[in-house]
Amino acid sequence: xxxTPPDCTATCPATNWNSTLFDEVLADFMxxxxxxxxxxxxxxxxxxxxxxAVPPSWLYVDGxxxxxxxxxxxxxxxxxxxxxxxxxxxxTGEEMGAYFARVVEHYTAGGHHDSCGHW
Length: 119
Fold this sequence. Notes:
The protein has one domain (20-108). The chain has helices at residues 20-34, 79-82, 94-108. The chain is an all-alpha fold and 119 residues long.
């Protein structure tokens, strides 16, 4: 999703969001749970509830250095050390809330505005 912190500068106008790998996993899951008609707007065979559980490590002062995250986590698995960090970079929790709002919007509204304002 958003494994690296945003860089909303004039020299880096592109988004840091990439849901490609997670979209594939989620699509397979939903196909198995909902059935083939759901992709065309048909009814889902079973109800589902998405659990949003792992925020990006850059939201933590003491989180994993984003530079250590491989481009393809299926090839190299950093996730054992990924869930480190206790102290939020934004103690109000607004940055964390905004991140999860983007994830929800991505999957309920067909896209989202990232933290730099890109759709």
